[in-house]
Structures are given as C-alpha cells and as structure tokens.
Specification:
binds flavin mononucleotide; TIM Barrel; eight-stranded parallel barrel; alpha/beta; 361 residues; two-stranded antiparallel sheet; single chain
Length: 361
C-alpha cells in the first residue's frame, strides 16, 4: 500500500491517511460571517471523498481582522450553533475537521472591517496603500484573547482541532516579519521579540483548549520580499513550537496570493516549499505537513519517504476534485488541477469553484 494511505496521528487525533485539505477560504458565509448550507455541503463532499483531515478556510477571530467579505466568523459565541452545522456535516460522513483561525492585520480589505486596519507597525502593504494603525499594548493583549476565545468556540462547536494561521502575510506573519514589524518594544527589534506575539497567541490558545486538544500551525517560513522573514529566522521559530503547545506544523511561505503559484504542470514545479520543510525537519520532531503545488502521487510519496514531511496538504486540487483521495487510492496518478488560479470568485460573485475554461465535465 502507498505510504499516502497509512494512518498517522497529530497529537490525539488519528488521521486515516496522509492527505489533508489545506485551509481554503470558501467565500460561502453570509455578510455577517455565518456559514451557508453550501459550506456544510462542500465539507460533507470532501469527507465522503476520503480526505484524512479538512482544514476550514480561515475564520476571523475579531471583527477588525476580517480579511474579506463572505469570510467565516468565529468571533462571537452566538455563532457556535451555525459553526456546529459544519462539524456535524463532516462527522456524519466519518470525517475530521479542524478550524483555521486568523486575523488579517494590514491585509484586511477596507470594506470588510469597521475601522482602520491594525498592524504591528504603520507600514503599508505596498506603496500607495493606506497605512495601518499601529497596535498598542492593550490592543495586542485583546487580540491574544480573541485568538484564545475563538479556539474555545471552535472546540465548543465540535471541531477536531484548531490551526493558527501564521502565514501569507496576515497579522501573525506581520509580527514575525522584519519587513512589517518595525517595533522597538518587547514585540519587535530582534527575531526573539518579533516571534513573541506568536508565542503568546499559541500559549493562550493552548491554555484555553486544554492539553489534549489538537493544535496546528500554518507557518510562513519565508516572505520572499525585501527585508522579509527568512528561512534562517523561521527555523528558530520552528524550534520553539512544541514548547508553545503546537502539535503539528504546516509549512508554507510568501505573502498573499504569491503563496498560490500558478501553472504547476510538471513534477519539477511541484512541492515548491520543500526546502522550507527540509529546514523545519532539522529543527523539530513535530509532524510536518507540506503544502504548495503537490499534485502527483510520485512527488507526494517521495516527500514522505525522504522524511521531510509526514502529511501532504493541498488546496486547489480539492476544489476541482473533492474526491481526489479516493481517486488516488483507486489508481489515478495525479490531480488534474492545472493551477490556473481561477478558483477565487470573480467580483460580485461568491463561492470557490473550479473555473478552468478547458475543464472536461
Ligand atoms: C481560493 C483559495 C483560498 C485560499 N484560502 C486560504 C486560507 O483561508 N488560509 C490559508 O492558509 N491558505 C489559503 N489558501 C492557500 C492554500 O491553502 C495553499 O497554501 C496554496 O493554494 C498552495 O497549495 P495548492 O498548490 O495545493 O493550491 C487559499 C488558496 C486558494 C486557491
């Protein structure tokens, strides 16, 4: 049997195979952030397709951290019953689902938040964009509590675990990154001080959910921008993750949509964060999940066999083929996703979908 279909655990959670649906913003929640039925249906379909674990699209922990309209919210207790419809849909199909929790910081769309965006420093994302408001000590504390409370709500709604989003240029990545964090207080100025926000978020979440609850992280290990976070510094972050209560590390990188590379058409294009996973492997014994252009069984198996990762996660392939694990199990060699990046909803529409114009139905 292929190593892809061997079970393995993340903390107390036993996954039936090594295939994970990486967090993918579905744009299937209403304008308040409550999930629509279409989202529960999508998760049920993924679970039926024999995925090892579903990670939800990023969910906002605070109204000031909502990245875009139609993002799912986990910022209020009265959302718990609506969130429970998602876990019920997955569990009824025998699947597992973990919630990704996030705050967008300076990457929040202006129409998605009630006031100005906040960030570690008043550094705009790019020239010509609005400057975010620098977080004060009280604001930082409030956001740590927001992450912890959100994790508690996810647990109450029946999620099998929580994943902290510390990648793709969102708030936690902003704290980790010297390009976005110019502070000179205890939250910035040195790599150790820049990673303090992540440390405190992870520790507060762990305290909130208890020792046995699966806690994952998606870590941006390299910003790939001028003066940004480098592999050297992120490997130091990785060394501490187990001490902060993390059970598994998903390796990612880059800022915003540049983390979603286009046109992955040959095995050489696949596994584009493999070097980061190799660096992480040197620094931790935690289970590692590798995302980024994983498409063929051959590449997935070789990454697992060399030991750089223990699980493979994918996003776009599951938008096109939600039953991809079952297909791979039955002999299909690779995803048919062409990485055209048309899966995001066009302006005025909502809901992810495979919009490859050449797709055979
Ligand atoms: C439509 C779409 C939405 C995404 N939303 C998220 C998200 O909410 N959280 C996250 O960590 N990554 C998100 N990503 C990035 C993916 O999880 C993944 O890291 C990236 O697409 C590379 O993997 P792939 O080549 O398998 O698609 C999204 C990607 C796509 C295409």
């Amino acid at each position: 049997m292929s190593i892809l279909f061997e079970p393995k655990s993340i903390g107390t959670l036993e996954l039936p195979n090594r295939l994970i649906r990486s967090a993918t913003a579905e744009y299937m929640s209403d304008l308040e952030g409550k999930p629509e039925q279409s989202l529960a249906d999508l998760y049920a379909e993924l679970a039926r397709g024999r995925i090892g674990l579903i990670i939800t699209g990023h969910c906002f922990v605070h109204e000031g951290g909502r990245c875009h309209l139609h993002m799912t919210g986990v910022h209020r207790d009265d959302f718990i019953p609506a969130l429970e419809t998602l876990t019920t849909a997955v569990h009824d199909e025998g699947g597992l689902v973990t919630m990704q929790i996030n705050h967008g910081g300076r990457q929040c769309a202006a129409d998605a938040i009630p006031g100005p965006a906040v960030a570690p420093s008043p550094v705009p994302l790019s020239k010509g964009e609005d400057r975010p408001q620098e977080l004060k000590e009280d604001g930082i504390k409030d956001l740590m509590i927001a992450f912890a409370d959100a994790a508690g709500r996810a647990k109450a709604a029946g999620f099998d675990g929580v994943q902290i989003h510390a990648a793709h240029g969102y708030l936690i990545n902003q704290f980790n990154s010297p390009a976005a964090n110019w502070r000179r207080d205890r939250w910035g100025g040195t790599p150790a001080r820049r990673m303090r926000f992540l440390e405190e978020v992870a520790s507060s979440v762990r305290d909130q959910v208890g020792d046995d609850y699966p806690l994952l992280i998606k870590l941006g290990m390299e910003d790939s921008v001028r003066d940004g976070l480098t592999l050297k510094d992120s490997v130091e972050i990785v060394r501490h993750l187990a001490d902060w209560g993390i059970d598994a590390l998903e390796v990612s990188g880059a800022i915003g949509k540049t983390s979603v590379r286009k046109d992955i058409l040959r095995p050489e294009d696949e596994a584009y964060f493999l070097d980061a996973a190799r660096g992480a492997r040197e620094a931790t014994d935690l289970p590692i999940i590798l995302v980024g252009g994983m498409r063929s069984k051959q590449v997935m198996e070789s990454v697992l066999q060399e030991g750089s990762a223990d699980f493979i996660s994918m996003s776009r392939p599951f938008i096109r083929e939600p039953d991809l694990p079952a297909r791979l199990h039955e002999g299909q060699e690779a995803s048919t996703c062409i990485s055209c990046n048309l899966c995001w909803p066009p302006p005025g529409e909502y809901g992810i979908a495979c919009r490859d114009p050449n797709r055979e139905q």
